[in-house]
User: Fold these one by one.
Assistant:
Number 1:
Amino acid sequence: MGYINTIIILGGINIIAALGVAILTGYTGLFTIGHAGFMALGGYMSAIFVKELGVPFPIALLLGGTFAGLCSFIIGYPAFRSELRGDYFAVATLGFSEATRLLLNNTRSMGESINTAESGIAMLFKPIGPLLVKLGGVFGYMSLPSPTNVFVVVVAVILALFFAHMFVTSQYGKNCIAISQDEVAAQMMGVNLLKTKMIALFVSAFYAGVAGGLMAFYFAYLTPSFFTITKSSDLLAAVVFGGIQSLIGPVITGFILVVFPELLRSFAEWRLIIYGFLFVIVMIFRPQGLLGYVEMNFYFVRIWWNKIFRRGQTSQEG
Amino acid sequence: MELFIQQLVSGISIGAIYSLLAVGYALVYSVYNFTNWAFDGFMAFGAFMAFTGITSLFMPFWLAALFSIILTVILSVGTEKLAYSPLRARKAPRLFMMISAMGVNLATVNIINLIYGGVFRKFPIDTLQPIFIKGVSIGRMDLMAGGISFGVLALLWVFLYRTKWGLGIRASSIDIMTASLMGINNNAVAIVVFAVTGVLSSVAGVFYGIKYAVFPMMGIVTIKAMIASIVGGLGSLPAAILGSMILGILETMVSGYISSTYRDLFSFLFLIIILLFFPNGLMGKSSGEKL
């Protein structure tokens, strides 16, 4: 049972992060290969909130996600303002995630040098010196509480899916889709490119941040090595295979891509090679992905609800 | 002062390697309007083929370099035929081309990782003694890397601007449909463009391997080349070279005077600052998305 729990929890965390990438890459058409960086920021921030400041766990998750979202503006604003081509935006995300990992790898030595510093700019950072030492650099941020369990993850996935659905069917989501199809045409129809892209990036980074937080509180420790470019490629893979402009597709593949390597441990080395070839094959034979352009909807729920409700009515009448 | 000159020479040589990469991206982008993400995989492939040529097949350095260039050209053109040209034939959106290229990259890098392992290897070439000029030591490898890279760039310039084939490529980069109506063979242009890209990535890979180390993830350095071309200004080859030089010198200065740990952080911060104050890069005209 413990093993199945692990798979469900890791799968759920991956689903939430993949939903973030789906909003940005699938719906807005902005290619990202740096979402591991946002996961890292969200994860570390929510861990700090819980462990150092004693904030309750659900609120810390939201705060961590918000922090990741705000950090995304560091690349979002300059990149979108200069109308950077989509490809170069991807470079900016990759650079951002590598820079984040570089900083996190060195938190310990930075903290130590701040603690021993006597003068200069380092004095400004004096209050956060001990905290940076605690983050531990490459050794990781140890002994966190671990409140993440199956129940929490399932609730989080349902909420994430619900809000993502609300987002993509709202006016903002429609603007995002318009941008992904033709930026110039969207602008002519009165879509504010900068604002819409920033909102999409914020939401996307928020999701990644929450996923990072859940991950931190499941493993009970964090190291920068969780958040490498491999993690970003995995998330991108979930969206590419699951389908462009679809939420349910990335959810399914996001889960499968966690379960599959677990079942086939001996193929672990081959995993990324297979992903690579699949990227090419999918693009050639089914570029829209498994469930591309298939909108998840809740009509079936309404239909069931009506059926149950009506049956109740008829039985009352009869 | 000595340190400054040493770092400057080193910076120019690393800038020359970045220029090769940036020009490789710019060439494919200007003709086919997508970023060839597979390029960093090709670079690692080129370095590893030269490495294998020297260690396993006991070739001299120049022969190993030639061996690596030929194999990388085959890989690059093969990728074009198998992964890009079916998509182009269907007029697929750019995002699909990019994802396909990303897939080629993932596969190449991880196959190399599977075969050779993820360890850092020293490139098997005798380290030549540095030259001393008035107490300033200048690495011969830096001079060689810089010199050969500039030589390759000069050859490319001659090829693009002084030959009929180059004219065909430049015409295709303006409008590929019209160019083919004027009798330019599109398939031949594709083969030539990707062959040139293969040569550039192989040379860059070999020199980067000599300067630092040979490892499967070495292609990650190509993000520096992209940063350089954004800094210089998108869409022109001289701007890409200018940006690469600035970035190369900035990086070696930072690692010489501040800290080599935070070198990559500085290049990324530099990108953000440039984008905030020069949204189109230093030399760029107002670009935006090409329709």
Number 2:
Amino acid sequence: MGAVVLRGGAPYGLDPHDIVIDDGVITAMTPSNQSGSNALPAEGVELELDASGCTVIPGLVDLHTHLREPGREDAETIATGSQAAAMGGFTCVHAMANTSPVADTAGVVEQVWRRGVEAGIVDVRPVGAVTVGLKGEQLAELGAMASSAASVRVFSDDGLCVHDPLLMRRALEYVKTFDGVVAQHAQDPRLTEAAQMNEGALSARLGLAGWPAVAEEAIIARDVLLAEHVGSRLHVCHVSTAGSVEVIRWAKTRGIPVTAEVTPHHLLLTEELVESFDPIYKVNPPLRRAEDVHALREAVVEGTIDIIATDHAPHPREDKDCEWAAAAMGMVGLETALGIAVEVFIESGLLTWRDLADRMSTIPARIGQVADQGMPIAPGSAANITVWDPSPQGPLEVDALVGKSGNSPYLGRQMPGTVRHVLFRGRPSVVDGALA
Amino acid sequence: MQMLGKHLLSAGDLDRAQALMILDTTAELASVTERSVKKLPTLRGRTVVNLFFEDSTRTRLSFELAAKRLSADVITFSAKGSSVSKGESLKDTALTLEAMGADAVIVRHGASGAPYRLATAGWIDGSVINAGDGTHEHPTQALLDAYTLRSHICGGQGDLQGVHVVIVGDVLHSRVARSNVLLLHTLGAEVTLVAPPTLIPVGVESWPCSVSYHLDDALMQADAVMMLRVQAERMAGSYFPSTLEYSRLYGLDAPRLELLKDRAIVMHPGPMNRGLEISADVADSSRAVIVEQVANGVNVRMACLYLLLGGAGSQAGGD
């Protein structure tokens, strides 16, 4: 397509600029107040997008997404998940391996990757399983997945913990061959049998089996020591407790190459919501205490937790329309992640837009080793761009979610703005808040 | 009559006045139970559904009898195999009952919070009474226990101010303990929980009661001791080394009975494991009020149904 001009948006919330995109690349940027359209190519402009009053940031990169395909196409497909991602301002998602069949072979990851290319509105980067069938018994063919067309670099048994310490050690060592990273779902299985919610005063009162913080923290402690021992990169999925933050902070101080993510819901919601027994709030790891939320925010600000990742986990209605114990764990999050992050970090002044762009785009792209993603809003960068409109929104309605499932804990919540436009490799995927 | 809410889900929902109203109503209804014709017309034409996802013959019969004595139409829906085990879902069951026009649903469910879902998810309009949900609560059990305590220790009147109740056993998994701690505290009683640390929930510090690991010390202070059922399968979860050791440390046997004050009573929500948490001679002793608890259970449940449903739509008074 011809050139696209994004007019009047403020990169990183600073001064408004007109941005010219041609052939998938940012070719020019001029301050809006000095420009006139004559600063821009007069010919070949195919599309002009108004971004006045908006903030322009690199397209978001999610390191932790469940797209459910293959196997649970009733909950989400790669196509619908891609749409949800685009609407949320993402230009790249990492599709977790806990599908059916499990993404533990080159064949499955290539299929997921191809379906992503077909959908064509975000980069879908398959995550490979660490162990065959997520069973935690035997390493999956990590090398084959790495050298496949999908060129997998992130490996995870997410949903389940690679609990066997020897297997975890081997996985950490093995992925060094292709500079991969193991993303650990840190949950000691024995300490969390039948666990339903955070363990503490509230679980005691509600009579729901507890998921103790130590079950996460003990695994992270073990894994950072293993990573140090074998000199490998480790990534920790969905950190949820203050204690985990302390362990990771200690590991980073020691120079251990560990990165960590936190979900928007763990940055905002607390366990008190479980009192309603409404399974919309059932998620793994569970919602924790206000002290944990506070520690997690602080960790994001100081960089102990490197990135925000959605853990987008779609479930069909019937899996939430039931009693707590029977309900599935997880929340959808692609469409709301940026809004929640803005509420928590931008509106409070805890982070600048540039800081937030690092944590939701640049750093996750680096951890996942995705080319052309997370690049700065500057001439020469690949044109993966998200435009955030800070006009206040009405209460979030389920119809506003374009993914296949509506299990969002934020329904009815006032969002602080909306994604107005998204460019994926120079092409609009979202225009004026709707799929292009 | 509108002093109670629409539902009875947690003992913690009752304030002192509401709890006393239920106990006083129970006392009035108890006199009916003593008549030869044990029936009141209060709930004539109303439909009460016993919805039991878990086997519990005694609780089910108790509620059934209570509703029948108030002249309600009673149906029992034994939905063994909840949606946890992929039977019919709670929602579909609820919609079915709603279609049948249930005025009250008495629900026993293996999942904590299931009665809350029934009451709040918009599936049904009627009142919901929690007849035991998972390891959460069993409010009518706490009410019948409070009634039993009051009649033995407080002359059948007022609250339980200053009464010391010791609850012994598997507190972690006990809905009876949770409801009792809340209600007995509301009524002014002092509660001490006694159990091995493995069977006390993390977070118990926030409960309005004290905790001890030593039964003998606690017994000496008690006006009443309530023994909880210990399920032998807990052993598999490493909660205690053996049933023998449990029984030795936390079982109520004849020598321990001697430690109790003269007028102290022994309670058990049933069904008992004789020889495990309570020895046969204690269960059959004159201090045991276990059978009386069962009788009080019917009256307390009559009172709950009467107060929750007796208002709008019923014909007041007898004819």
